[in-house]
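Final report, Chapter 2: Outcomes

The project's central promise was a pipeline that accepts a single protein chain and returns its three-dimensional structure in a standardized token representation, suitable for archiving and comparison. That pipeline is now operational. To close this chapter, we reproduce one record exactly as it appears in the project archive, with the input sequence first and the structure output second.
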Amino acid sequence: MQAAIDVLGYERNEVASSLRTDRTSIIMLAIPDITNPFWPDVARGVQDHMDREGYAVVFANSDWEGQRERAFLRMARRSRFDAVLINPIEVTNEDLLATHIPTVLIGSREDYPDFDTVGSDSYGAITLALDHLFSLGHRRIGLIRGRRQNRRGQSRLTGYLDFLKAKGISPDERLIVETPFHQGGAQGMQHLLALEERPTAVAAANDELALGALQAAQTAGLQVPHDLSVVGLDDIYAASTSTPALTTVSKPKYEIGQKAAEFLLDRIHGRAPAQSRRHIYPCQLLVRHSTASPRM
């Protein structure tokens, strides 16, 4: 039989096969911002794992739009995708249940009790960054965060406020800047530098914002870290190649993608427990050259 197949050059009809098995061997990965350097490593982790199992991955970029996010879910259902990986922005636990598609969330979310979640400790990450600055002697610390924030961004703000209160420092709302992600770090830093009493250090909600802030400080004539310390979160590639190299908190992005894909395959093949699972990776502080003790 195999010899006849080889001679005739037979190729399997995947569409017909999917109708018989009720599987397409295609999954969707829906993310909010394809331009954010955090996501390529996550996506590579997902794709490498799914490739080994014979699955194709369709990438979908919601661009922070809830309407587009819902459209992706409808498309996944119409196209009979086997499963969905998603970093949700607006869709709710009930929205995802209504798709009747195996789904795993990427991110440290607690408001989706019916779904497996894989992510990193965002609250712990900002705490690591702030503790590093505090240990250097900084007490007036600014925070630059993205305006379009999901629950992960909120946990960073909560971590910032909780840390200051735990150290006996009254939070100054003037030191908290919300700004668009694109070019937002520079805008946020310009706002902080215009204050009568400037911060001695700035923490940013991600490296993209931190690098923009660093550049704005240098444009303003400040030397980092001699005049001002800057710390980011995520450890994207550019963080290690900037001048000075950015102190940041590393997240295991590739591993997050791998684990999310593993959880998804368990759901597809009925190997997962009935109760939802939650896997949150710890983060690691990487001290480079953008932080130092404040000038006295």
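Archive annotation: The longest strand covers residues 26-31.
This record, like all others produced under the grant, will remain available to the consortium after the project formally closes.
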